[in-house]
Amino acid sequence: MAFIHNYSTISRGDTFNKGVLYSCMSTNNEVLFPNYKENIPGINLRRVSTIVKMGLANTLKCLGNKKTDAIVIGTGLGSIHNSELFLSSYIDSNQHILSPTPFINSVHNTISGEVALHTQSKGYNSTYSQGGLSFEGAVMDTILLTKERKQVILGSVDESTPTLDTILQKMNIQHLFDTGSSFFYCTDNKKKSLAEITHCIISTKNKIKSILFDLKFNINEDYIISGNSSCYPMNLDTFDYSKFCGIYMTNPSFGMQLAIEILNSSTSTCIDGYNFPDQCKRIFIINHASKTDIGIIIIKK
Amino acid sequence: MTVYVTGIGIISAIGMNAQENFESLIAKKTGITNIELLKNLDERFLAGEIKLTNKELAEHIFTSKKTDLPRSLLLSLIAAKEAWQTNTYNNNIRTAFIGATTIGGMDLTEQYFKSNKSIKSLNYHHCGKIAEYISNYFGINDFKTTVSTACSSAANAIILASRMIKNNIVDRVLVGGGDALTGFTINGFNSLRIYDNELCKPFDKNRNGLNLGESAAYLVLENKKSIKITKNKKIVKILGWGNANDAYHQTASSPYGEGAQTAMTEALKIANLNANDIDYINAHGTATSNNDLSEGRAIESIFGEKQLYSSTKAYTGHTLAAAGIVELIFSIFSIRHNTIFPVLNYQNKMKELKTEPVYKLRQDIEINKVLSNSFGFGGNNASIIIGE
User: Same domain, yes or no, for A128 and A265?
Assistant: First the structure.
């Protein structure tokens, strides 16, 4: 099973420096980016895209002076900004000589590739993009990789842009997307770990009751959190954390760091009137990815 | 736990199904021609284009003429149906869907921005839509994901699928990749100045870049428990796999293909084989100056100067996210028919290499084990070994 040894998140508020629990104590509307110059030394950041900068800063913070054998990243839309740039460059027929830079940066695995390049990590490298279930694919791979005794950087990255806002509004989608990125350092070593990922399930909604039953869900010890239960309400007592990070396709990764912090706090945790008591053993991150699909990640201390 | 291939399906510029693809390969027939169906390109491009409109493709699958689906999805459905055949939903077989694509529904996104088509077309933009649609279509609901690691996507999808079966997480996987030709990718590779405006020449001294192609290719992978229930015929085994990163450059491979060497070595290790056990290598061989040199050197350094290898890119074009499975299916043909499909358009030996690719059809040797390479942007290198 995958044991988590470190984490780092860029989201609303100063999550990068203070963690997500701290930022959940107040409502922040703006994503606060870390000082990239300080956190990503030895690289000219001028031409590096937002998502790559987020991925790099989070990776370096998770790694410290450790090495990694594997990098797996989930992204719902990759670099929407660069996709827009390249699309408009060739649709605008006046431009006959196209710059390849936005094309290269629009490819989904640019983030994992750049992270490998900058940290000189020559091991396993993969990227998952499954809409609202993109992070869960990367988590499944991480569980397998730690079984194969690899030290893994697991991450998520998604960004919002003004064009994306306009499109979502035109599509009558209730919530605009936010920018956010969370990374984790995972190994097969339980010693000194912060928490454990015990399960990652992708299934259909009609199976949720039987899945919870199979996993011996215990109402006194197990708690459910979600980053999008408001989009598809279910009849389960759930703490929705989207108020603190916004809605984006890989926001279960924010929930994962939140779960780790809750499980590691020495007292009971109360967020926005919702109480996680001391005896909380497991946290289920339930992701209502669509009308039919569901993702479940279980975090245990 | 052993991983068996029990179903194959493919649509490419050289055929609508596996049989047609095999017949074109053995006849050394290329599918690369002038682009006719894809409109609004500024220049003339050669590509492996499937000469059927979206409407015609839809007629192969649906009774109604669905024209609102992205082309990558239509291609994927055709190939997935051929691979899936008589498989059905079964409560006792945990089944996953693992897809691979780089562009997803980008063709419809282009149309939206170009000709102000309905906003609904953007519903298909993200890469996971194909997996969502196909897994619902076949009632596959125990796991789904989509790999997007550029040109190595399908190979990495097989690697994940094989590891999930090996670790007893699922019993059966429908795994595949699909990428249609789009203005996005053609303009993209052209902007990188690696698009040949003549027919591509893999492993030739005068190679001048790649031609893109469109395709979808799918496999059904199963463990023994699943086969006992489905009674599907075993075609080959997935013996080994390797995934490594070059960590050298955003788009180019390192001069001696360090990542490629690691991926191939790792695959041999997992398969528990020596380099001389590999009868043939289906190389990535895109015909770019950089890839073929770096891959050729990497092959020579691991497998020596007697290794037989070729690239089939000049038949189908470079099919991006589908390439890994397109070429794994061709490797299955090589094993089944003891045949090596030669490189096309080959004239001159590369001076930097000691070896030459197989450039004449070979049917005089026994082929039991094949290694297939897929490399991509972001330094991604993936190798897979199959055998009987």
Answer: no
